[in-house]
Amino acid sequence: MKRRITIVFFALIPLISFSQNNYFFDEIGIWPNKCITNGDNSKGEFGFGVEVYKYLKKDATLEIAFGVGYNMINQTKSRIEESPTKYYSDLKYTLQSASFPMVIRINPEAKRMFFITGGASANFLLTLTEAGTEHTLNSNTNKYETKEFSQTQNKYELGYGYFFGIGYTLDLQAIKVRISPQYVIDKTTITTRGEALFTNYFRLHIGIFMLQK
After folding, report:
1. Exposure pattern of 96-109 as b/e (b: 16+ CB <10 Å)?
2. Residue 168 buriedness (CB in 10 A; 0-12 / 13-18 / 19+)
3. Which residue, of 29, 57, 140, 195, is most buried by count of CB atoms within 10 Å of its CB?
4. pLDDT for 77-121, tens place per residue?
């Protein structure tokens, strides 16, 4: 999985270099995220994401962009009962997906430093990785036998979501850095072993906008 993440990240770097000459993309966004869960059995963990954007509209008050990217969210579950003689514990789930967002940014003041942002996204779930410990009752000894496991499923499920947040722009001459805490609601429905997985998350979005020469 680490190799896959590295390939995705470095594959996006050349696209950003072209953006300075008005070719492909104008901005790259990267973020750490934290999955938001409910209940005592689940816990959100940290993940990350990256997207690149092309602007369709840029003026003093309103900006509209479309993009493409990659997102990974992580969460854990303490225990899942499968049957009276089998259960799973210490489960970790990793969801990897492609995203296709539309971003709207409103600049309410003249210097365009503070902004309000939001938008919607089509999300394509790629893989679901599950790791944990399996416990199976041995009928002969009446004791549980345990084994560690890890498996990755190709899911290919289409969903959608939306996001909103506020932010601040740092003007660093050659680039602009936009820092924005955002709440992301992902409406993709994912279940495993009869349990629902959580897909909403909080992210600290850092956008790097390359100024045109």
Report:
1. bbebebbbebebee
2. exposed
3. 29
4. 999 999 999 999 999 999 999 999 999 999 887 667 899 999 999
Indicate the residue type of 28.
I
Pseudo-torsion of CA 58, 61, 66, 67, nearest 10°?
100
Q: Which amino acid is at 72?
A: M
On whether the CB atoms of residues 69 and 53 are closer than 8 A, the answer is no
R_g of the chain, CA atoms, integer Å = 21
| CB-based contacts of 117, cutoff 8 Å, min separation 6 | 103, 104, 105, 106, 163, 164, 165, 166, 167, 180, 182
Q: Which amino acid is at 8?
A: V
Report CA 87 to chain centroid distance, whole Å.
29
pLDDT band at 175 (very low <50, low <70, confident <90, very high): confident
Amino acid at 99: S
0.70 exceeded by the pTM?
yes
Q: Of 77, 27, 35, whose CA–CA distance to 52 is shortest? A: 27
Q: Which of 130, 115, 134, 80 is nearest to 207 (CA)?
A: 115
> How confident is residue 188, by pLDDT bands cut at 50, 70 and 90?
confident
The CA-CA-CA angle for residues 52, 58, 59, to 5°, reads 155
Domains and CATH numbers, the chain: 2-210 (2.40.160.20)
